[in-house]
Design brief:
Elements: E1 6-9, E2 16-19, H1 24-33, H2 35-40, H3 46-51, H4 56-82, E3 89-93, H5 99-106, E4 110-114, H6 121-129, E5 133-135, H7 139-145, E6 155-159, H8 168-178, E7 185-191, H9 196-201, E8 219-220, H10 223-232, E9 235-241, H11 247-251, H12 260-276, H13 279-292, E10 297-304
Parallel strand pairs: 3-4, 3-6, 4-5, 6-7
Antiparallel strand pairs: 1-2, 2-8, 7-10, 9-10
Helix pairs in contact: 4-5
Amino acid sequence: MKKDFRVIIDSLYGYRKLDPLPSDREVENYYTTRYYQLLRERRKAPELYRLLSNNSNERGSELHWLQRTLYNDILYYLKNNCVTTKEPLLLDVGSGTGDFVKFIADIGWRVIGTEPSKDTKYLLMKLRSEKLEIVDSTLESFYEERKDLRGKINVITLLNVLEHVKDPYKILSLCSELCDRVCGVICVRVPNDFNQLQYFANGKVREKEWWISFPDHINYFNFESLEKLLQACGFEIMIRSTDFPMELFLLMGDNYVDDDKVGSVCHRKRRDFELSISQELRLQIYQCFAHLGIGRNCLVFGRVKK
C-alpha cells in the first residue's frame, strides 16, 4: 500500500486533505484486502464493528446508545430549530448499516437512504424487506437518477461521509441543489481532527497523529473549515454541536490508541456518561465544547440560503 503522502491544507476552504489523493485502485485494494482485517481487529471504525457484530448484546448496546444520544439529538435539533414541514422528506447519504434510516422512518418521516458499499449488504437487504427505501447508489448517481427530487428534499444527513470522498465541495453542492429552496436543511457529522486536545494528547502515544487514516480518510475537518465549506456550497450555519472528547482519556493516562482493550473500556465509560445525564444537559455541555472547538466529532446544521 502506497504511503508516500502528506497532509496539506486546501487553499480555498481550509480543510486538510491527503496529497496526493489516493487512486481509485488504492482505495479499492485497501477495502478488499486490508479493511476487514483491521475491522475485525478493532483497529478501524470501532462504531461500525460493534454495529456489525454477530454478538447481539454488543450490537444491541451500541444501537441503544446511538438511538438515545446521536440519533435522538439530531432529531431534537431538526424538530426544534430546523424543520417546519409536517411530513418532511429526509435523505441520508451513506447510510452504512441503515440504523439511522430505520430510526427516522419509525418516527413517521419519509426517508430515503443511499449506500453504495457492499460491506453492510445483508443488513440493508433486511431493511429493504421492511419496505424502507435504501438505494444502492452514490449521491452523484442518485442526483442524476432522481431529477424529480431536486429542490424538494427537506433534510439531508451525511454522518461520517465527507472524510471519505475525494471532492467534498461537489458532494455538498449536489446536496444544496437537492434541498428544498424554502426550508432545506443539512446535517453533517465528521471527525473533529487536528483540534487542540489532539495536539496535547499526541505526546501520550507512540503513533504520532494517530487520527490520520490512509487511504480511507481523505479529508480532515474542524468546525471552522467544515462551516466555511458549507457556506461556500450555499448553506448558512445554524447549529454546531459535538460529542465526548475522547482525547481526555489519553490526557488522563488511558492510552486507547496503542491498546485496543483500553479503547473498549474508554468507550464504555463514554457511553455510560452520556446515558446517565439528561439530554438537555448533554446538549448544553456539547454545545459549549463545540464553541471551544473540541469534541470527537463536528456536528453542524445548516439551512440552504434563499
